[in-house]
Prior knowledge:
By secondary structure, this protein is mainly α. It has a domain at 14-193. It has ten helices and no strands. It has helices at residues 2-11, 21-47, 57-65, 71-107, 113-126, 128-134, 140-143, 145-150, 155-179, 181-251. α3 crosses α9 and α6 packs parallel to α9 (155-179). The longest helix is centred in the last third of the chain and has 71 residues, at 181-251. It is elongated.
Amino acid sequence: MNLTRTAQLATDVHPAAEYDGFIGWVLSLMETLGEVGVGIAVLVETFVPPIPSEAVLPGAGFLAYEGRMNVWLAWTLATLGAIIGAWAWYGIGYAFGRNRTRAIVGAVPLMEHEDFDRAEAFFARWGGTAVFVGRCVPLVRSFISIPAGIERMNLGKFTWYTFAGSGLWNAIWIGAGYIAGPAIEPVLEQWSGVLSKLVLVAIAVLVLWFVAARLLRLRRVRAANRAAQDAIEDAVETVVETVTDREIGADTPVRRTSDDQPN
Length: 263
């Protein structure tokens, strides 16, 4: 009886618990949060672009391969999270219009007006197709919903394009984690500790690069704006001085010399 119970407990150990380091922790966390956590992660990515869904979805697929997550439910909730996030940005664009929405995007930390401008140009060129394709492009997918809302795109059509694009993208990444499961599992069992360190270093480098690039670009933009403002102020000051000098010259009476006096 005791031997049977021990064997049962051994088979009940979470596969994620067998892995070391950061990878094991992430898989354990995802398993604890379940399919709902996958949907929440995709929703959060809509507002925090540096956290890519591509880092979460393959893990969901791998857990589904190990039998610790339902692959269809994970896909459904991931797609639902993407749709809800898209609705939020669509509503902001619809309610506030172009200029105020652009100001809101620029006020969000680590986001720039150029992010809004790129999404707007992409939508202006491709229309509804941009919503479908944009769901598969990092950063763009976070903002492509804004011009759709500003232009009052039909909500049903917008939702369909978002569902199709997000559903396809989520299926690719979740499916990749599921299909690669047989190859990934033995590697993680032996090298999860080393791979965790490499993953942490890669994440740190990418985050630092993203933040540094954004801050440097923001500094350049502010410097350019400051230089343009100074140039405008100098030009205005020059014009004012010129006009003032002319007015003073016009108001000054001309003194006649003796040669100018009539005989």
